[in-house]
Amino acid sequence: MDVLMARERRYLRFVKPSYDNFVLPTARHANIIVPGSDNSIAIDIISTHIRRQLDERATRLRQRLAGAVPRDLTPEALNPDPTKEYLNLTLLPQTPQLKGMFTILRDNSTRRGDFIFFVDRLSTLLVEKAMELLPYRQKTVVTPCEVAYHGKELDAEYVCGVSIVRSGGPLERGLRRVVNAIPIGSLLIQSEAATGEQILLHLQLPICLRHRHLAEQSWVFLLDAQIGTGAAAFMAIRVLLDHGVPQDHIIFITFLVARCGGITVLQRAFPQVRIVSGAVDSSLRETWLEGVEDDDGQTAAEGRKVWVVEPGMGQIDFVVVLAHSTLWNSM
């Protein structure tokens, strides 16, 4: 009897008031309440309804990104007023030297050794340009001539790189050449075979991005060879934001950007993300051919659309990664 009375007192003192104060007010706003602790029939009905809704609302993200309205991304349109920046897209100065490098990289008859050399050289130029977007502070040093020099030093707590496997691989060597001992993480994003939607299969981030309080102070160089549909870029940026990296601390480095397609959506969805590119290409071409790689390094499955950048530089990531691995194995 005493045990029953003690249980009743606990119920009236703790359980009932907690239900009245917390559970009941929120339950009034619930669309569905499943009675019982193990109501398998109600759970099956709800899960079936959710699956049906998801099937009816297939995202088809890549197809929508590829069909985005083209924007004028020429250097003149990007920055007609030197005092104002447009679209958060920074292009390398279109000098004869740069155009000569792109001519070699686009030439189908270029030897593999020359291709690798100029890819590494171009990646270095892109990273050096991206370094200008990092914050700097004033610093004065005394030279060996006992003269004070007023310069600048990096004003960033943490700087790291994240490469989208495998298309971001050709940019990693340039990043390591410019930033000594920089930590580089990786993301593996592949297309689902049936629908072509993006799936995150692998995630290995530098230690400064694994803890939110550190990620908030970090600057990230996101590496990808090309932005065509931009589906992989979209997911990669979303992953970094979910880990706490501020949007304006992400600098996307890429060799090529298509004038239409995903660049438009990226700049609308993430207006503070900076993009550094070597050139702007004319268009995206839709194809169904099996074995053709699209802008994100994805190989087309039979019967599924892919979009390739034109004129483009071919399978740049495959050539560079294969050559580097061959060189490493021969040493």
Spell out the blueprint of helices and strands.
Elements (H helix, E strand, L loop, with lengths): L1 H26 L12 H17 L4 H6 L8 H4 L10 E3 L4 H11 L5 H20 L4 E7 L5 E7 L3 E8 L3 H10 L5 E8 L6 E7 L2 H4 L1 H4 L2 E6 L2 E2 L3 H12 L7 E9 L3 H8 L4 E8 L1 E5 L18 E5 L5 H15 L1
Parallel strand pairs: 1-10, 4-5, 4-7, 7-9, 8-9, 9-10
Antiparallel strand pairs: 2-3, 5-6, 11-12
Helix pairs in contact: 5-6, 6-7, 6-12
Mean pLDDT across residues = 81
CATH class: Alpha Beta
Count of β-strands: 12
Oligomer: single chain
Distance between the termini: 84 Å
**Radius of gyration using CA atoms only:** 26 Å
- Characterize the biggest β-sheet: 8 strands, mixed
**Structural class of the helix and strand makeup?**
alpha/beta
| H/E element sequence | HHHHEHHEEEHEEHHEEHEHEEEH
- The portion of residues assigned to helices is 40-55%
Could you say what the CATH topology is called? Rossmann fold
Beta-strand level of the residues, as a percent range?
Answer: 15-25%
Q: What gross morphology would you assign?
A: flat
Identify low-pLDDT runs: 82-86, 321-331
**Any guess at the CATH architecture?**
3-Layer(aba) Sandwich
How many domains? The number is: 1
Number of helices: 12
Family: Belongs to the uridine kinase family.
Enzyme class: transferase
Pathway: Pyrimidine metabolism; UMP biosynthesis via salvage pathway; UMP from uridine: step 1/1
Domain Phosphoribosyltransferase: 93-286
